[in-house]
Amino acid sequence: MTPSATLSPTREPSTLHAKGRRARDPLPGFRLALGATLLWLGLTVVLPLTALAVRPWQEGASAMLAALNDGRMFAALRVSFQSAVLAAILDLPLGLILAWALVRTRLPGRRMIDALIDLPFAIPTAVTGITLATLYSPQGWLGAPLSRLGISVAYSVTGIVAALMFVGLPFIVRSVEPVLRDLPPELEEAATLLGARPWQIVARVLTPALLPALISGFGLAFARGIGEYGSVIFIAGNQPFRSEIAPLLVVVRLQEFDYAGATSIAFILLVASSACLAAVAMLRRRAARGLVAEGAA
Predict the structure, then answer these.
(1) Confidence label for 253 from pLDDT (cuts 50, 70 and 90)
(2) Does the structural domain 70-296 have CATH classification 1.10.3720.10?
(3) Could you give the CA distance from residue 149 to residue 135 in angstroms, rounded to a whole number?
(4) Whose CA, among 13, 76, 93, 132, lies 20 to 30 Å from 290?
(5) Percentage above 90 pLDDT, the chain
(6) Which residue numbers delimit the ABC transmembrane type-1 domain (predicted)?
(7) What sections of the chain are H helices per DSSP?
(8) Around Cβ 44, how many Cβ atoms within 10 Å?
(9) Looking at the predicted structure, is the pLDDT value of residue 9 above 70?
């Protein structure tokens, strides 16, 4: 028997069998998990938003037109949006300084300060509102000296801004902190050796690199401020056309059994909030592209 006859040829996998075999997913159960996630997202997010968009039109266009002619509603929307924007803007420098101090310095009790930053996320908003209203009332620890100076915080738009600053500050800090940790401190040291002053380091070295994170934090704080309810109603005073916020007006309309008016206000608030958040997202993308372009240059 010849050697060629004793050695049998090695069989290779069939080409048709290889083509017919379905490629396995890199993550086991990925399709099932993705389907369950999309289903849960649709039930908890898409379906309620769709119902909110459809509900105001179920009673005809007259209810929607009546809501659009409500001056009280536009006054409440103006108070909510102006207060949220102002609070988010005021939180930007405070959040940047606080994040820089936590990352770049060794503050005594830094771990406790870092834990206190997340406190607005943990405590109920009603507790926050009662505490701020007591603190800034004319007889409060901070309200009494401020009232002697002629500054009224509680039961005014100023109190709304103060409450929104409290609940929005963690968004700024937590958005900037991880980016600042990845930013090498040698950039600040080099700027110092070149003669840059501290404000120049912040304005020309830190701020351009942190601009996308600052915009993201601003968007999150602004979105939280628009829909904030519990921490605001106790300190706002809730005076129509002066210190009444839009979420409170929705509750008032529901208490009046005016469901068409309540859903109309909620729909307008949803559209306006979505437009503002889309604008913030566009600014964040442009800032990120500009930062990448500068780095490539």
Answers:
(1) confident
(2) yes
(3) 16
(4) 93
(5) 15
(6) 77-278
(7) 3-6, 15-20, 30-41, 47-54, 61-68, 71-104, 110-117, 119-122, 125-136, 143-148, 157-182, 186-193, 198-201, 207-227, 230-236, 246-255, 259-296
(8) 10
(9) no
Cβ atoms of 250 and 185 within 8 Å: the answer is no
The DSSP line for 175-231 is: HHHHHHHHS-THHHHHHHHTT--HHHHIIIIIHHHHHHHHHHHHHHHHHHHHH--HH
Q: Which two tokens stand for residue 283?
A: 């600014």
**Please, which residues have CB within 8 angstroms of residue 287's CB and are 6 or more apart in sequence?**
211, 212, 215
pLDDT grade for 74, boundaries at 50, 70 and 90: confident
User: Both tokens of residue 32?
Assistant: 């099932």
Q: How far is CA 63 from the centre of its chain?
A: 32
Count Cα neighbours of 189 within 13 Å in the Cβ-side half-sphere.
5
Sorted by where each begins, the domain ranges of the chain are 70-296
